[in-house]
């Protein structure tokens, strides 16, 4: 249950953010993966071409989302029932690298420089294989680059990917991305303007308050509803300068924050909630993140001094809530 959006500033710079929900308690680190690093994955290994950083499973060079040194940003999202994974031997027979579902984002961010490069090469380079560990969960992927272009990559064909341009800069979960775009047709009547009063014969009928133009926008946490809500909140939100772009992402994604206990999978202990919300600055190669337990925004930079490190580097995410004590004015 994840939601992602892009924001483009007035200056034309590209930003991206996402919420990360899961019903398993996962531990996360900030991580930087260097260039020219021999990265071992479930079924093989590959050499990284670009340095990348982002949110990783604790102690592992496996990015859930991130940005690379070329400004390409992206993340993995759950894709239940629509993924088509095949045996690794069949992938190798096609001359491709077999990856587990949760490993593709790491491969893409360390091997592609742009959305155009993903579109050109992705079906020549890799495919998603069946593995018998947690890396094999159903996934699909979204990427954005410095130009503002966005692309969706879905392993919904045996041994291959369906690749879609993402014209709205919004992403959630199943069903397939093209279905979500078609579903937007059902909500073209939504408006950012307050609905006007009407005169019904002798009765003056008042508009029912602020936000009435958005009456009918879906408010639940299904992927279909979140896609619609994200698309229209992004569409109607004001254009911002670079200094407000990350703030804008967090404000929009606040609408998708799931408190513990609101969404139960199968029992009172099996709950899905927003474990973190992250945002990325494509130009500055900067990550911003707050956790469920700590709403203070924490940052990490992909600076040039650590791009050629010999090993991945990990950074602690502080889980205890931080508070700012106001000083006396004057």
Automatic annotation (TrEMBL):
<keyword id="KW-0378">Hydrolase</keyword>
<feature type="domain" description="Choloylglycine hydrolase/NAAA C-terminal">
    <location>
        <begin position="2"/>
        <end position="313"/>
    </location>
</feature>
<protein>
    <submittedName>
        <fullName>Choloylglycine hydrolase</fullName>
    </submittedName>
</protein>
<dbReference type="InterPro" id="IPR029055">
    <property type="entry name" value="Ntn_hydrolases_N"/>
</dbReference>
<dbReference type="Pfam" id="PF02275">
    <property type="entry name" value="CBAH"/>
</dbReference>
<dbReference type="GO" id="GO:0016787">
    <property type="term" value="F:hydrolase activity"/>
</dbReference>
<dbReference type="InterPro" id="IPR052193">
    <property type="entry name" value="Peptidase_C59"/>
</dbReference>
<comment type="similarity">
    <text>Belongs to the peptidase C59 family.</text>
</comment>
<dbReference type="InterPro" id="IPR029132">
    <property type="entry name" value="CBAH/NAAA_C"/>
</dbReference>
């Amino acid at each position: 249950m994840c939601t992602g959006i892009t924001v483009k500033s007035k200056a034309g710079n590209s930003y991206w953010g996402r919420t990360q929900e899961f019903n398993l308690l996962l531990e996360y680190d900030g991580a930087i993966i260097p260039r020219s690093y021999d990265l071992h994955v479930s079924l093989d290994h590959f050499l990284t071409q670009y340095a990348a950083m982002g949110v990783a499973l604790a102690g592992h060079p496996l990015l859930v989302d991130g940005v690379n040194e070329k400004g390409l940003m992206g993340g993995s999202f759950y894709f239940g029932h629509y993924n088509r994974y095949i045996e690794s031997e069949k992938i190798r027979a096609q001359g491709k690298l077999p990856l587990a579902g949760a490993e593709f984002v790491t491969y893409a961010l360390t091997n592609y420089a742009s959305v155009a490069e993903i579109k050109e090469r992705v079906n020549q380079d890799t495919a998603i294989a069946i593995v018998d560990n947690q890396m094999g969960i159903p996934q699909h992927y979204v990427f954005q680059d410095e130009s503002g272009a966005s692309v969706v990559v879905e392993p919904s064909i045996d041994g291959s990917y369906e690749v879609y341009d993402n014209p709205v800069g919004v992403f959630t979960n199943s069903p397939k991305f093209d279905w979500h775009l078609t579903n937007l047709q059902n909500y073209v009547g939504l408006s950012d303007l307050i609905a006007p009063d009407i005169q019904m014969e002798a009765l003056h009928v008042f508009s029912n308050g602020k936000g009435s133009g958005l009456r009918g926008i879906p408010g639940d946490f299904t992927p279909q509803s979140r896609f619609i809500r994200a698309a229209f909140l992004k569409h109607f939100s004001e254009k911002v300068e670079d200094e407000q772009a990350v703030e804008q992402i967090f404000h929009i994604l606040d609408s998708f924050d799931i408190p513990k206990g609101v969404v139960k999978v199968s029992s009172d202990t099996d709950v899905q909630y927003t474990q973190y919300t992250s945002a990325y600055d494509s130009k500055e190669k900067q990550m911003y993140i707050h956790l469920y337990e700590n709403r203070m925004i924490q940052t990490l930079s992909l600076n040039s001094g650590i791009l050629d490190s010999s090993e991945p580097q990990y950074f602690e995410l502080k889980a205890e809530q931080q508070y700012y004590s106001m000083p006396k004015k004057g």
